[in-house]
Amino acid sequence: QDLFHGMCHPVDLVGVEGCRSERGENGSLKLPLGALFSGQHREAVVRVRIHDATVTSSRALASVRLHFDDPSDGDVPRIQEVVARAGFSDDQSAVASSENAKAKAIMAVLDASKLELGASQSAGAGQFAAADHQLAEAQTALEARAKKTTDESERTRLVAVARKVAHARADVQAAPTAAPTAQRNLTLELNAAGMKAQGF
């Protein structure tokens, strides 16, 4: 299954976070999703650049097309399409009230994953205090986002990720007196956690 984000002028698709992607024709992006089964879902953040900043209530950003083989109909190739839209406002309170909890949670997890990858590099260099600081920043941001969200499922998700980061911090704090093998394992675990959160 492949998810295509087709460019709608004058919008540029800058890139994707949380999933592998490939560049297609005319600035489009292709997200190879692999095999998906009932109940599974994949998440990604697509960054866009809008050239026309005119405030409007709604604007098409991209045509999102899912290419798949339909197992219920002899694996015949099919395409499903929706148009991704965005609303615009110069009213800060209106923007805040229309906040997308799921999108904010995804970004919080992705930002935390970058800090985890940084912590992995710091720990690998023996800079455990720096690694702890990076993980503390990730934990604080996740907990803050969890408190702000009004979506209970997203709050649960953010709290769970924050707890994993807290456990990693405990391991980092104990690392200076740990055996070299344990220190190497910690570095690998931090890297694996960061890569997994980014969709790899």
Structural account:
- The protein has about 200 residues and is of the alpha+beta class.
- A five-stranded antiparallel sheet has the order 3-4-1-6-7, with no helix packed on it.
- The protein contains five helices and seven strands.
- Helix content is about 45%, strand content about 25%.
- Residues about 1-5 have low confidence and may be disordered.
- The protein has helices at about 90-95, 100-125, 130-150, 150-175, 180-195; strands at about 1-5, 10-15, 20-25, 30, 45-50, 60-70, 75-85.
The gross shape turns out to be globular
Number of strands: 7
Strand content: 15-25%
Low-confidence stretches: 1-7
Provide tags for this entry:
200 residues; alpha+beta; five-stranded antiparallel sheet; two-stranded antiparallel ribbon; 7 strands; globular; disordered N terminus
